[in-house]
Amino acid sequence: MQKLAEICIRRPIFAAMLVLALVVVGAASYFRLGVDRFPAVDLPVISVRTLASGASPEDIEAQVSDEIEAVINTVEGISELRSVSSNGASTVFATFKLERDIDVAADDVRARVQTVLGRLPPGIDPPVVSKFDNDSYPVLTLTLSANRPLRELSELAENLVKVQLEHASGVGEVSVIGGQTRAIQVSLDADRLRAYGKRRRRSRVRGRCHGAAGRQRRRHGSSHAYGRS
Questions:
Q1: Both ends of the chain: CA-CA distance in Å?
Q2: Does 175 or 90 have the greater pLDDT score?
Q3: Crossing angle of helices 12-31/2-10, nearest 10°?
């Protein structure tokens, strides 16, 4: 180091050229430096997703999210625990400390979730435990809004926007979140159903009577008689 200092003092032009060369090489390397916006990083985040079709967010939070959070909270190494409850879905996120092995933590979470299955409401899908993966995270999110009914917007998103995006080059998967699924509610009137059943039985009896009369007339040789059932 002392020898380099002596050379730079004795030969200032050489020292200036050396510094200039380092600046040029550094600037060229900086502009050619590759940047990965989604690096392959194993983040210490585990999610537990549970689907319950038709349930409201309040019921999901009280009967599903709170129960799962209570058992996951006992896992060692958790730094943050939060949940998102929406229509028909519950997602619980558990963030662990960096020194915690994420594979071992995932196994511990699965074991805790198995203990709460008996306390969850009947008819829901089994909870799915998965590690956070940057590759599966959506790279583009579109929001559809207009002064129209929610059901109409849902049909546009499902039948028009989703189809167009799926045909785009390089798109692997398109999913629609939110909206309103079309449902048909059938209301039955018990009194009218009973009346309809009586009328139908009477028409069947009347048809059998007409059929018997037609067959009886044919036995007597009448060519104009006919029967309908």
A1: 115
A2: 90
A3: 110
For residue 213, count other CB atoms closer than 10 A to its CB: 13
Average pLDDT over residues 41-53: 85
- Residue ranges in the chain assigned as alpha helix (H): 2-10, 12-31, 57-60, 66-72, 102-114, 150-156, 162-166, 190-219
Structure tokens at 170: 């390089």
pTM of the model: 0.51
**Could you report the per-residue pLDDT of 83-123, keeping only the tens digit for each?**
999 888 899 999 999 888 888 999 999 999 999 988 888 88
Q: What strands lie across the sheet with 78-86, from one edge to the other?
A: 78-86, 89-96, 45-51, 128-131
| Residue 98 bridge partners (DSSP) | none
Cα 162 to Cα 14, 86, 138: the distances in Å are 64, 21, 14
Single out the residue of 165, 199, 62, 36 nearest to residue 121, CA to CA: 62
Chain CA centroid to CA 143, Å: 15
- Answer yes or no: are the C-beta atoms of 179 and 158 closer than 8 Å: yes
In one-letter notation, the amino acid at residue 59 is D
Residue 49 near residue 90 (C-beta atoms within 8 A): yes
Q: Which residues of 193-208 are buried (b: 16+ CB within 10 A; e: fewer)?
A: eeeeeeeeeeeeeeee
CB contact at 8 A, 66 and 48: no
Among residues 14, 90, 78, which one has the least CA distance to residue 53? 90
